[in-house]
Write a structure and sequence with these properties.
Blueprint lengths: L1 H36 L7 H21 L2 H28 L7 H8 L1
């Protein structure tokens, strides 16, 4: 029975590693594009702030479980997301640019 339990833990850690790697890979193109172009006009800071909080919670969950893969990949994603948040904030501050969404366009699209 102990061997079965250990095998399940190993499989869970392998799955967490694969999921963490894929999640991290998903952030690379956006982070790299922001780094190269310094363009953040199309990015919503609230979305990235929410993603930052989500990854903090995952890191805490990984710490509670003792899962190094969850902790590691959550921290790496926090770094990527944090970088994007800082660039959005800096660009908005430098440009004194405030996003005002025109909801009338959405309503006309739906009608």
């Amino acid at each position: 029975m102990v061997n079965f339990f250990n095998n399940k833990l190993i499989l869970a850690e392998i799955l967490a590693t694969i999921a963490g790697m894929l999640s991290l890979i998903a952030y690379i193109p956006q982070t790299y594009k922001v780094y190269l172009t310094n363009q953040t006009d199309d990015l919503e800071i609230n979305t990235f702030f929410l993603l930052f909080i989500i990854q903090l919670i995952w890191a805490l969950w990984g710490a509670l479980l003792g899962s190094m893969s969850i902790i590691t990949f959550s921290i790496l994603q926090i770094i990527f997301i944090g970088y994007i948040i800082l660039k959005i904030y800096k660009n908005n501050k430098d440009n004194k640019h405030i996003h005002i969404h025109n909801h009338n366009n959405l309503y006309s699209f739906l009608n």
